[in-house]
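Appendix B, example 12.
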Amino acid sequence: MGAQVSKQVQRRKSISVQKKTLVDLKQNVGSEFPGSDYHPADRKNWMSGLNPDNVRINQIVWPGTHDSATNAIGIPFVTRPFAQCQSLSIYHQLKTGARVLDIRVQEDRRVCHGILLSYSVDVVINGVKKFLGETQSEIIILEIRTEFGHDDPPDFDKYLEDQLGEYLIHQDDQVFNKTISELLPKRVICIWKPRKSPQPKAGSPLWSSGYLKDNWIDTDLPSTKFESNLKHLGEQQPVTARKYFYRVENTVTPQADNPVLCVKPVTNRIQPYARTFIAQSVSRGIADRLQIFSTDFIDEDFVDACIGFTSARVEGKV
């Protein structure tokens, strides 16, 4: 018992030290970067506001949500706080400005996060289609994967093609160099990541898993995650030289050996430092690698930071 208590004391001390590290970093170097003062007039239509004729796909810093379809997961006030990573519905995330969705499914096409379940994936698709029906020039990256430990839903690729066929941007390396206008009226890059089923092939309506990469580390230590994100980002090629999307996730996750197991208070250790992260990527000379930037509990300030940096890229300020 004494050893366990000592371990917990040390863990809490480490978290406290790392939280202070980020506070000091933000105070000492700030959170300003090219475009940091930009605020879109309409977040629902922010790509349209940047002029789709001028914005290439590889110039965009895509605001994304981590574990996007967990707003109604589990049992409220019982299991939900341990797995909920977003409070907004899929439609309202998109309306707020998110353009990358991270969806995990199990065999029966229900959304899940580990062992906890949410609604049918139909709810996700309906939210996406509602948003697309209300906008004209917004492009979405929809990543759907089979959750670890589960089998792929049967014929899921056919389901996605049937549901989203009119909107799907087919798998093609040339997409990265095209402008938004050149892709319209197609609006969705759907990346399907099965565990056992065959990967989508080149030229198909769906994109294979290699087109969206990241370097996830499972930690609740905020400075450790922040620096890991910067390290791995710096190892990537510039966005103009690669033919895949690379994601950085401004999140930390609860750990079983720590008494704080609810997502929100844990992810709050790093969430306020999204703008600091962009500023650091600029100061370290790796801002040309930044592409997808995702978060838990997405908010307008996070979205504005991504759009602002995108605007600066388009205007040649970066």
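The mean pLDDT is 96. The beta strands are 62-65, 100-105, 110-113, 116-120, 140-146, 188-193, 212-214, 245-249, 292-295.
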